Amino acid sequence: MDPIRNPYAPGAGQRPPELAGRDDQLRAFDVVLERVAHGRPERSLVLTGLRGVGKTVLLNALRSAAVRKQWGTGKLEARPDQGLRRPLSSALHQAVRELGHPQSEDVDHVLGVIRSFAQREAGSAAKLADRWSPGIDVPAVRGRADSGDIEIDLVELLSELGGLAADLGKGVAIFIDEMQDLGPDDISALCAACHEISQSGLPVIVVGAGLPHLPAVLSASKSYSERLFRYQRIDRLARDAADRALSAPAESEEAAYDEEALAAMYAATGGYPYFIQAYGKVVWDLAPRSPITAEDVAVAAPEAEGELAVGFFGSRYERATPGEREYLRAMADAAVAIAERGDEQLDDIQSVPTADVAAALDKKPQSLSPARDALLKKGLIYSGERGRIAFTVPHFGRYLREHA
Question: pTM, whole model, 2 decimals?
Answer without folding.
Answer: 0.90
